[in-house]
Every structure is written in C-alpha cells, then in structure tokens.
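Sequence in, structure out. Go.
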Amino acid sequence: MAEAGRLTAAGPGMYELAGTVGFGDAARLLAEGDRAFAPLRAVEVDLARVTRIDSAGLALLIEWSLAARAAGRQIRYRNVPPAVTSLAGISDVSELLMGSAAG
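Output:
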C-alpha cells in the first residue's frame, strides 16, 4: 500500500512533502499547506521524499504557487522529482512553477 502524502514542518518557513501525492490526498494537502503557509512571507517545500505524484499532485503545487503570488509570498520547491518536471512539461504548465523550483 502506498504511503499517504504528508506535509511536515522542517524548520522556520521550511516544509517537507513526502509519500504519494495525488488524487487521494491533494485536497487535504492543499488545505494543510494553505493554513501552514498563510502567516509566512517565504516558504520552501522539499519534495525529496515524494515517492509518487500524479496530475492532482502537480495541480497542488501549482495552486500553492498561485496562492503564494496572490498573497505576495515567495514559494520555492526543492529536490523536484523528474516526474513533476516531465508532467509539467507535458501539461504545458512549466511556467507556473518556474522560479518556484530549485535543486
């Protein structure tokens, strides 16, 4: 059985997204991220422990990026899995994550 997606604090303004990030968890993770990120001016989300991601997971990252822009907040994604980069390219949404991804 796949490990459910989870968002955990990893330090001030730093979070880790891990497990399977997809249709089953995207809505919950969106709400958790929105609550956690709201008081912050800058957020970094490490994706190194994401084991699987689908289009709903990509939509989650895009939603977080759009919400950050609307709130005047910076968000960066670190250790972005190749599957995310590939899915974003296929879906023609890479530009929505550009400037939000690092290492």
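Check: The mean pLDDT is 90. Helices lie at 26-37, 55-71, 82-90, 94-97.
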